[in-house]
Write a structure and sequence with these properties.
The structure is a homodimer of 243-residue chains. Chain A has helices at 35-42, 122-131, 133-159, 162-179, 193-200, 204-216, 233-240, and strands at residues 21-22, 27-28, 46-50, 55-57, 65-79, 85-92, 96-97, 108-121, 187-188, 220-224, 227-230. By secondary structure, chain A is an alpha+beta fold. Chain A folds into two domains: 9-145, Jelly Rolls (Sandwich); 158-240, Orthogonal Bundle (Arc Repressor Mutant, subunit A), CATH 1.10.10.10. In chain A, strands 3, 4, 5, 6, 7 and 8 form a six-stranded antiparallel beta sheet that branches. A three-stranded antiparallel beta sheet of chain A has the order 9-11-10. Chain A has a two-stranded antiparallel sheet with strand order 1-2. In chain A, helix 2 (122-131) crosses helix 3 and helix 4 (162-179) crosses helix 6. Chains A and B meet through strand 6, helix 3 and helix 5 of A and strand 6, helix 3 and helix 5 of B. The structure holds a DNA duplex (30 and 30 nucleotides).
DNA sequence: CGCAACATTGAAGCTTCTCAATTAAGGTGG
DNA sequence: CCACCTTAATTGAGAAGCTTCAATGTTGCG
């Protein structure tokens, strides 16, 4: 699924060229640093592998680590008292997890269908930023990109119909895949219909119906349950009406 | 409406004690700085006053400034191609506007019923952060708080019924008002029903009906069109089910 | 190969929206 | 200060879209 094989072992070596890349905007936390500075960061990372559905951390756990995804996909979600679940985001190779003003994780992180990550101690990262202010600058850029993404999510949830939301979701996944290399079409969906539904704030049955409707209108082709071909990217983006 | 009178003139003087406070979590960008550093920042600010409905900046304008609200309220919103509007947030005294990874403003900023702001040139702020890394650290904390707030907004939009959303909105406004001083009850609403509707992703008629319903259930009292008394804060927060 | 989880499809019901009419509030000019 | 006019808010009725519940089909893992 991921284009780039994970070159590092799951023990201690670390490929600094992939360290803390924020794929949303292709911001690389290490891009501004000198080689010896990179070495310092790489020594802090611990690489880990998770199987399908494995939990990286639970909502409410003490937030001791930040993560950089190197392969696979991770789902962030919160669960309300009533049991309803909101999926906050799906993170892929290159994405960063860790922005929060709270000392506990505000969401649960789970591997969607397996994932590899690099884990950094929050304390280590804090100490490193004191020596290397450039890191903080990068983090601020990445956080700003996160804010933009969250606000796009808000607009979609607030103003779009079910079919528009699903269209916007497919366009977003396609674009994100393209930034990781490749064409981004067809779109590969590692997550279930229920995951998508909880991301878009609707029932999973409605997801099915919207896939069928978009297909009947010729905008997409459901090549298999997890592979969606976008027949006309501009038309689909236009239909989604997401600015 | 604002508890603190704006002490600075609308020309050039600047009260550093109110500089760039992020009221969402009471993070003060200047808190970590020395007096002479504060002086540098204060010299960068230009204070401005806006009347009801006045536009601070338009979506798509070149983002040359960042703002700190010192009085009144500002509404941030985006408009889709179809004309639908999403209100991203309401900002009050102490709140900060400016996080974006784009060179253009991603939203329109308008004074709700009049507002006073301190404006900083983005370039000036960038230069200042190069000399004072502490500022960047504060900005990162503020951005993290922004991300948390956006994710709460997402969860509310995705998982809550109309009445739950309105309850959560009232609880949030009450808490924000309390951080600015005062009891936060009754809640004062500077914005229209349509503004609230576009923030919560529903029709403004539904806002009216939900106010009526919450009142009939005894949770609130609509003292006047813009003043809502929360009769039982815990019950309302519980009803809103927002974690 | 078989079972359990996931996905699709149908039908009925409910929440919310839309359209429309009425009432209330706010601002302006006399 | 009041009358008027415009904008905002409320309320009602009908329609639309989405959800829920249920049955069936599909996928994939052990």
């Amino acid at each position: 699924m991921a284009k780039q094989p994970a070159r590092q072992s799951d023990k201690f070596s670390f490929d600094v060229s992939r360290c803390l890349i924020c794929s949303a905007r292709n911001l690389n936390m290490c891009g501004a640093l000198e080689p010896e500075e990179l070495a310092k960061l790489s020594g802090m990372a611990r690489c880990e592998t998770f199987g399908s559905g494995d939990v990286l951390f639970h909502e409410g756990d003490k937030a001791t680590s930040v993560y950089n995804i190197t392969d696979g996909a991770v789902r962030l979600s919160t669960t309300l008292k009533s049991g309803r679940r909101q999926v906050i985001g799906f993170l892929f190779s290159g994405d960063f997890i860790g922005f929060s003003d709270r000392n506990e994780y505000p969401w649960t992180g789970e591997a969607v269908r397996g994932a590899k990550v690099c884990r950094f101690s929050r304390g280590d990262l804090t100490r490193a930023t004191q020596e290397l202010p450039k890191i903080e600058h990068r983090l601020l850029e990445m956080a700003s990109a996160d804010i933009s993404a969250a606000q796009d999510h808000i607009t979609m949830l607030g103003q779009s119909s079910a079919a528009e939301k699903l269209s916007a979701f497919l366009v977003m996944l396609s674009r994100k895949a393209a930034t990781r290399g490749g064409s981004g079409n067809p779109v590969h969906l590692p997550m279930t219909r229920e995951d998508i539904a909880d991301y878009l704030g609707m029932a999973f049955e409605t997801i099915s119906r919207c896939f069928a409707r978009l297909e009947s209108e010729g905008l997409i082709t459901v090549e298999s349950i997890r592979v969606i071909r976008i027949n006309d990217m501009d038309a689909l983006a236009d239909f989604s009406d997401s600015r």
